[in-house]
Amino acid sequence: MSDGYRFDRSSLSGAGHGLLDAAADFERHTGGLLATVRGTGDTAWGGTSVGVAMDRLGDLLDEACRVLHGNLHRTGDGVRSMADDLRLTEADAVATVNAAGPGIPGPGAPGTPGSARQV
User: Fold this and answer.
1) Which of 19, 65, 89, 93 has the most CB atoms less than 10 A away?
2) Residues annotated as region Disordered (predicted)?
């Protein structure tokens, strides 16, 4: 029973780490981009109305990138949390089965659902 869940937990944990890595990469790349297009005062538009609009556009882009980064990070944390919950659920299920003792028939045993012969 434990081996079947171990693979899923590993996949979930890996997916969570992957999302967190993607969030960090996204933040790094967009941070560099935004640093070059906003707030420097050295844009081609200077203090014109186009410059003001471009600065506002940069602010909106910065805000959108922060929201997306936060969402990626929270999703990665959530997936990793699911992997942790799966590990705890697996441990509880194994403990419950072990506590029930060896007297419980396995699947396919006579008299159990899925067996060829009902008692």
Assistant:
1) 19
2) 99-119
Beta carbons of 51 and 118 less than 8 angstroms apart: no
Does the residue 52 lie in any domain?
yes
Whether 55 is covered by a domain: the verdict is yes
pLDDT at 5: 46
Question: Is the residue at 114 inside a domain?
Answer: no
For the chain, list residues with pLDDT below 70. 1-9, 37-46, 103-119
Q: Tell me the longest C-alpha to C-alpha distance in the chain.
A: 89
In the chain, the number of structural domains is: 1
Domain that holds residue 46: 2-92
Q: What angle do CA 30, 32, 34 make, to 5 degrees?
A: 65
Q: What is the pLDDT of residue 73?
A: 87
> Residue 69: its pLDDT value, please?
87
The one-letter amino acid code at 1 reads M
24 backbone φψ class: left, alpha, beta (φ>0; ψ -120 to 50): alpha
